[in-house]
Structures are given as C-alpha cells and as structure tokens.
Amino acid sequence: MNTAATDAVDRLSRFRSAVLEWAAGNSGEHEARARALAADGQIRLVVLVEGVSDQVAVETLADRRGVDLAEQGIAVVPLGGATSMGRFLDIVGPPGLGIELAGLCDVGEEHHFRRGLERVGLGKQLTRSGLERLGFFVCDVDLEDELIRCLDVDTVQRVIEEQGDLRSLRTLQRQPAQRDRTVDQHLRRFMGSIGGRKARYARGLVTAIGENPAPRPLESLVEHMQSRAIRRDDER
What we know:
The protein has helices at residues 3-23, 29-39, 52-64, 69-72, 85-92, 110-119, 128-134, 143-150, 153-162, 166-173, 183-191, 197-209, 216-235, and strands at 45-49, 74-78, 100-106, 136-139. The chain is α/β, with parallel strands linked by helices. It folds into 2 domains: 3-141 and 213-235, no CATH class; 145-209, no CATH class.
C-alpha cells in the first residue's frame, strides 16, 4: 500500500472514530476532529448501518466488488442500534456535517430510519422505494437471515466448520428448545448466540457468496456506493 492509500485509510478510520465518540457524548476534540476531516471534502459519503456485523458485511462486499472505500472517501459507520439513528443524523446529516448519506437496516428498525430521515428534511412520507432512492436499503428479517437464505445451508455450515465452530453448532441443535426448529433457524440462533459472532461470520458468509449476487439489500447498497464513486470520478 502506497503512502497516499495509507493516508486515505487512516483518514477514514480517524473520521469514523471521531464520529462514534461524538455520538457517545464525547464532543470537544472529537467533534473538532470530525469537522476538520469532513471540511476538506475527503469524506464524501457516510453509510449508516445498525451494527459492526453490518459494517463488516458492507465493507467486505464493497472490496469484492472493487469499491475502494478509502480512496472514494466512503465511511461505513455502525450506529450501535437503530434507535441511535437520530443522533447520528444530527452529526453527519444536514443538521451537522452535511455529508451525503446511505444506509442499511433490518425491517423491524425501518421506522427509525424513515422517521429520522424525514425529520432532517431528506424526505416526506417515505415509502420503501423512497428510502431506496435515497440510498437506504432494508433487510428482511435481518442481514444474517438474508445471507443464510442467499447461501444454501450446506455452504453456511461449511463456513462455520472452517471457523472451527461446527461442534458448537451441533451442541445448540441438540438443545430441547431447538429440536422443532428448522436448520435455517438454528443457523440464525447460532450467529447471534455469542457477542461478536455475527461480525466474525459476516466476512466469511459474504466471501462465500463469491461472484454470485449477494442479498438484494446488501448488493443494492454497494451498487449505490459504486455509482456515487463513478459519478464523482466523472465530475473530476
């Protein structure tokens, strides 16, 4: 990685860190740092996602689709839960830094995203198609469910085996509460049973998709990010 690329990666990391600290209530130097990094126009798009596992999935697919996030100034920022959407919109959206936005959420949290975007003036009575025109896409039920349905269960179990967790999955499947559930339900329960597991598997599952289409919300988001990058290149 050359010096310019290293600097771009570092800038994105510092911006994300500053925004997360600012959103957590630690303004002061963190707010000043975020504003300074945004002021030079190098941060061009902020992608708001619910959690770290979503961030990993988006970044992994973007890399596989040839979208250089650092070079394009695209920061994927995890909210730590959809209820924080309003706070982050106040920071990076029109009331704050005024950076272009996109995002990904679960269907159960769609109302938080819709209400927040409408509140900051990015739409009125937004429908699902209206959200998508803004660059916001909705997973049904959540991203893990989308990924498991996109891949066949054998592939998902192979990814689990490669991570050395197949025995843990089998233990879960033998539990009385799991016996009447489907394998898909076992896999979803397994992904969320230990903190950090969703994020660890997000990369493996997206990688397993290969060149095949990813789940529509994820693929559409990355296509949106790519289109913004192409548009900016054309404007240069």
